[in-house]
Structures are given as structure tokens and as C-alpha cells.
Design goal:
It is a single chain. By secondary structure, the protein is α+β, with helices and mostly antiparallel strands. Helix content is 35%, strand content 31%. The protein is built from 13 helices and 19 strands. The strands form three sheets. Strands 1, 2, 8, 9, 10, 11, 17 and 18 form an eight-stranded mixed sheet that branches. The chain has an eight-stranded mixed sheet with strand order 6-5-13-14-15-12-16-19, sandwiched between helices. The longest helix has 29 residues, at 347-375. The chain binds flavin-adenine dinucleotide (FAD). Flavin-adenine dinucleotide (FAD) binds at residues 30-36, 53-56, 61, 66, 68-69, 150-151, 182-184, 188, 206, 208, 244, 287, 306-307, 314, 317-321, 323. Flavin-adenine dinucleotide binds at residues 30-36, 53-56, 61, 66, 68-69, 150-151, 182-184, 188, 206, 208, 244, 287, 306-307, 314, 317-321, 323.
Length: 420
């Protein structure tokens, strides 16, 4: 008999799992951002009961003014889940990437033929990913979406985790076999579990803004490396574009404080006039930029995914894509363990996920850091080496393919979801 869970009033969709031998759910995912949602959706047919816990009300979460480059492997994962058809109509496809070093005339051009795919990647606004994933939860009868509900405390026991929740100002408790932290870069779950992180804050901040160009963007993404930091302009639906512009902290602060006309003039100086006049849409924001890797991705009864486990420089648009791969990898490990009758919170099971993802993420973290350091540098020998590297990248096809595969996730171990 399915028991009515005390949280049933705030569960949407109102599906109540059957508690099993003292557990309310097999696993609880803390954080209903895109990474947490991807894991919940990927577990649809796993037979595991899942609580997905998100603190922010739906309207607040959906209003996040962020946009992301979505790579080919992420697309394949979303296809494997069965949500890609709902995402695709709302996002832009880029079919050309132009890479250049400041105002040096040599440009590296990437086309889908270089990768052997029909596109190079996609650009999606936050809501274009969040809403289809949230809607897909309605097809996941074993996932209970607890929102807005905040996790305030966790207590680890040998056989499970007791999680204290704040629901409408009241306290509740649930028990699970496994806790998954998808609660972002400042993960309280990670800190409370005593997992240390390594890394640094960059000397740059990142300005993001939306613009509408006069001329068609022609599905082209530009990445231009200035000594002050990388500058990207990414195509969006409705002939809009996303600016991701890194600059030293003081410069970034001064730039966002400019009035619209002055800001656009500075923007055109960095970007040029390929798309004609640019018109600003909405506000600009500044983000701090950090490189961070958690010492451990797992403990007994705990796994970290997404920004809770790692963060990187925005160059190349890697952060969210790594998190989506974490989610797909963890789903596969848990599904297999469950099929084999193993305890999904058992450390040796979770270590399989850590072995799979930690080193691969570290490679990407290192690569983005190297790119930033190589290009934000005016020392002549470095300038010569990087211009030679760009020259070779444009002319040596296997090298071009290798670089593209690395940046789009196609060189690592692909989860089974992405191969369906
Ligand atoms: C300027 C900039 C540009 C970027 N561009 C790109 C890009 O082009 N491509 C790309 O792949 N990545 C990009 N990134 C990185 C990307 O934004 C992050 O990697 C991604 O958003 C992380 O997603 P997440 O789901 O792990 O965490 P978050 O999006 O931070 O989600 C965490 C969720 O957990 C919830 N939460 C936290 N604590 C609790 C709690 N105690 N109880 C309940 N819920 C809780 C929060 O409300 C939140 O919804 C960029 C980052 C920056 C800063």
C-alpha cells in the first residue's frame, strides 16, 4: 500500500513513493538546477525512488538570466533522456566558431564538417533547459519534486542519511540511502560533510549581457582572446546574442557602470562591427570567476555533482556541460548497482562514479586555465607560441578535430544514455 508522505502537499507532481524499510526515498538530490534535474530525469526508469529538493520557488529559478553553450555530448544525453525535442525549438544552433587572438588577422574557423556532426553546438537560455526538464518530471512517477523546500541539516549514519528540511517555515525530516549534492558552487552539503576544495579565484570577473545586432548573426559564435581576458559572443534565437566578457576586476566593474552608449562603444572595440550596430537588451551582470575542484567527489552515502564538485573559467563554456556529464555518469553507476542488488550509498559503488568523472573534469579545468593564461599574456615567447598554435589549428585537420572533440566532450567516456 502506498503511504501518504507528510510532504505530499508540496510535492509536485503529487506522486508519493512507497517508503522502503525505513527509507522515505532511495536517494535525495539537493538542488533542482539543471544538473540536479538532469540526474532526476536520467533516473526515470531506474526503479529508484528519488526526492529532488529545490529551495527556490519555480518563478525565481526560471528567471535566472543566464545562457549556456550546450555541447554535442550534452545534446546526446538529453536525447537519451527523451527531453531534447522539447529543448531544441527554444535554443540556437551554432554552425560556425571563429577564434582569434586580439586584433591579429589570423582567424581559426571551425565548421561542423571538422567534427563530423550537423552542428558544432547550441546556446540555450536557462529557462529553455530548466522548463523542459521540470516538465519531464511529470513522466517520472518515482521522482518527487519538493519545491520550495530547503535542506538545513544532514546527518550521516552507517545505513543512510537523515535530512532536515525547512518547508513553509516548518521543520520536517526524511531518510534516504544516498544524498546527492547538486547545490552549486557554494555547496553547503559539501562543506558540512568536511570535503575540502582546491583552486583559486581568477584575477578576472565576467560580464554577461544580451544584445540584439543589426545584421543576422548567421549562427556564428565568436571567441576572441584579449590580453585582459577572453571575450565571447554567442548566437541566440530571435537574432539575439549573449556576451560573455572577462576582464580584470576593476575594469569589469568600471565597464558595467558605464551608460548603455559607452558600454556598447567599448563592446564594439573588443568585438568589431561584423554584425552592425548592437542594441543592449536588459541588464548586465558581473560574476566572479574561480577554478575549484573538490578533493573528493564521494563519501559513504554522499556524492557531489555539477558546480558542487568543480567550477572553471567560463572560456569555452564548459561548466554546465561537465555537470550534465556528471549527472549522466552517476545515473548509470547507480542504475547498474541497483540492478545488481548493491546498496547505492555504499562507498565502493560511489567510487566508480568518482573514478569516472574526477580526472576527466580535472583535464577540462586544466585546459580552460591554460587557455586563459596563454592568451591573457603579452610576453613575446608566449605570443609567438600561441599564434603558431592557432596557425596549426587552422591548417592541421586532425589537430582541429582533436581540439573540437575535447571542447565538446566527445573525447571522454560517453555515458550509455548518450549512446541510445
Ligand atoms: C559568467 C558565466 C558564464 C557561464 N557560461 C557557461 C556556458 O556557456 N556553458 C556552460 O556549460 N557553463 C557555463 N557556466 C557555468 C554554469 O553556469 C554552471 O556550471 C552551472 O550553472 C552549474 O549548475 P548546477 O546545477 O551545478 O548549480 P546551480 O545552477 O548553482 O544550482 C544549484 C541549485 O541548488 C539549490 N540549492 C542550493 N542550496 C540548497 C539547499 N540547501 N536546499 C535546497 N536547494 C538548494 C539552488 O537554489 C540552485 O537552484 C558559466 C558560468 C558563469 C559564471
Amino acid at each position: 500500500m502506498a503511504l501518504l508522505h507528510p510532504l505530499s502537499q508540496i510535492i509536485s507532481p503529487p506522486q508519493i513513493p512507497t517508503p522502503q524499510l525505513g527509507y522515505d526515498y532511495d536517494l535525495a538530490i539537493v538542488g533542482g538546477g539543471i544538473v540536479g534535474l538532469t540526474l532526476a530525469c536520467a533516473l526515470k526508469d531506474s526503479g529508484l525512488s528519488v526526492a529532488l529538493i529545490e529551495a527556490k520557488p519555480h518563478s525565481v529559478a526560471a528567471a535566472k538570466g543566464q545562457a549556456y553553450a550546450v555541447h554535442m555530448l550534452s545534446r546526446r544525453i538529453f536525447e537519451g533522456i527523451g527531453v531534447w525535442d522539447k529543448i531544441l525549438p527554444q535554443i540556437a544552433t551554432y554552425r560556425q566558431v571563429r577564434l582569434s587572438d586580439a586584433d591579429h588577422p589570423g582567424v581559426v574557423e571551425f565548421q561542423p564538417a571538422d567534427l563530423g556532426t550537423e552542428a558544432l553546438g547550441y546556446v540555450a537560455e536557462h529557462q529553455a533547459l530548466l522548463t523542459p526538464l521540470q516538465e519531464f518530471l511529470q513522466e517520472c512517477p518515482l521522482v518527487s519534486y519538493l519545491c520550495p523546500v530547503e535542506v538545513v541539516k544532514t546527518q550521516y549514519e552507517p545505513g543512510g542519511v537523515e535530512i532536515a528540511l525547512r518547508v513553509d517555515g516548518e521543520s520536517r525530516k526524511i531518510r534516504t540511502r544516498l544524498l546527492v549534492a547538486a547545490d552549486g558552487a557554494r555547496s553547503r552539503i559539501r562543506t558540512a560533510a568536511g570535503i575540502n576544495t582546491r583552486g583559486w579565484q581568477y584575477w578576472q570577473s565576467c560580464i554577461v549581457a544580451f544584445v540584439k545586432p543589426e545584421n543576422p548573426h548567421n549562427d556564428t559564435a565568436y571567441e576572441r582572446f584579449w590580453p585582459s581576458g577572453p571575450f565571447a559572443i554567442l548566437p541566440l534565437p530571435g537574432n539575439r546574442c549573449r556576451i560573455v566578457w572577462t576582464a580584470p576586476h576593476e575594469e569589469a566593474k568600471a565597464l558595467v557602470a558605464l551608460d548603455d552608449e559607452q558600454f556598447l562603444a567599448e563592446l564594439s572595440r573588443r568585438y568589431g562591427d561584423q554584425m552592425g550596430r548592437l542594441e543592449l537588451e536588459g541588464s548586465r551582470f558581473v560574476f566572479s570567476v574561480q577554478l575549484m575542484q573538490s578533493d573528493r567527489y564521494v563519501l559513504s552515502r554522499l556524492a557531489l555533482i555539477g558546480d558542487a564538485a568543480h567550477c572553471c573559467h567560463p572560456v569555452g563554456g564548459q561548466g554546465l556541460n561537465m555537470g550534465i556529464r556528471d549527472a549522466a555518469a552517476l545515473a548509470q553507476v547507480l542504475q547498474l548497482a541497483h540492478n545488481q542488488g548493491e546498496d547505492i550509498g555504499y562507498l565502493p559503488v560511489l567510487k566508480r562514479y568518482e573514478r569516472w568523472r574526477k580526472q576527466e573534469n580535472l583535464t577540462i579545468l586544466g585546459f580552460t586555465d591554460l587557455l586563459d593564461r596563454m592568451f591573457s599574456n603579452n610576453w613575446l615567447p608566449v605570443v609567438v607560441v600561441r599564434r603558431l598554435a592557432l596557425w596549426m589549428l587552422q591548417r592541421v585537420r586532425p589537430l582541429k578535430k582533436f581540439a573540437l572533440q575535447l571542447m565538446t566532450g566527445l573525447r571522454g567516456r560517453a555515458p550509455e544514455l548518450a549512446q541510445r
